[in-house]
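ingest -> fold -> write
write: protein_1
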Amino acid sequence: MILNKENFGTMLAQARLKAGISQIALAKKMGYSSPQYVSNWERGICGPPLDKLHVLSKSLNIDPEIILDMIMDETESYLRSELKLKSVGSKKKRAAK
């Protein structure tokens, strides 16, 4: 998943606090025994597995469209950036020949 994990983590933390759910309670709902997973997501260290997004959205009462939009927007930005960088690099390589 290509995603700005810090922005996603901030959104998750806010949604979890709004829902009044602790990290351990959310972790258990998602099938984990440790709140460290949720903590890592919220701190932007990593993102939740894609196969857990449905449970996550349901547990935090987040519209799945919001999660989808975040993933799609971040993915599009990343790909546009990478394609632009690569095309510039290719032009430089061709010009050097």
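write: protein_2
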Amino acid sequence: MSAGVRETVVDGDRAGQRLDNFLMRELGAVPRSLVYRLIRTGQVRVNGGRVKPMRKLAFGDRVRIPPVRQDAGPVRVPDERIAAVEQRIVHRGEQFLVVDKPAGMASQAGSGLAWGLNDVVAAIEPRALPVHRLDRDTSGLMLFALGSANARQLQQLFRQGTIVKRYLALLDGHLADERMVVDQPLKKIRDGSGQHRVIVAEDGQPARSVFKVLERLPHHDFVEVTLETGRTHQIRAHAVHLGAPLAGDDRYNPGSGDGPGRMFLHAAVLEVPWPEEQVFSSPLPEALAAFLEQVR
């Protein structure tokens, strides 16, 4: 693969999206005309072949993306960011990497961001391909395949539900039961302010989350959430559906008062059964641990 070129594997959340719209999000603030030119000239390819802009992407498709931004230049990640993220690699094997993502760093470029964690990891290991995502304000473990064949294998494991993701979250309010299964479809919308949001809706995509109360606090529940699907903002939207949104979540829980200074959501455990059973964990970041102690 040429220098600076990256390959993104389409996850379940973006399956069915048109290629041109997919690229607009991947490339950030670039003219749509540039996107069409990249597709027309074969610089963008899907599974190694030329495609039309309106091609609908399928789960597991491999999209080749050239290193362009508004100035058509390569992605330049600051050296200090590369060094910092390299220190946060918790596993580096032959098949994949596991990175402990800091809060505040987007997984991918776009919406005015010149680079994201995916670009940083690619600067460390050019073969690295993300196989799932975390919201910008979510910290914790992310999985990167090393090469396309390993990416396909890991995507298959995600699809089968054999890779387990467990999150720690603090809810404003209390759940009705100690363990609650939320099996409610989710749909993306734009709210009155133009922001993208996700809501429970009958015509949405299937989504299933399991909330387990770890500790009851005076005004909060400290919970573990296991995801059985991987929809955008799934935990955030399902928590709202339960009547106990995430502490510090400005989009889904505005005006919630004093908080930890960020959304209280952390990807704490990742269980990967291939090529052997492995469990990776990440402790609560210091800011979240301090706030949890404060509200006890």
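write: annotation protein_2
The first helix runs from residue 19 to 27.
The chain has a mean pLDDT of 88.
pipeline exit 0
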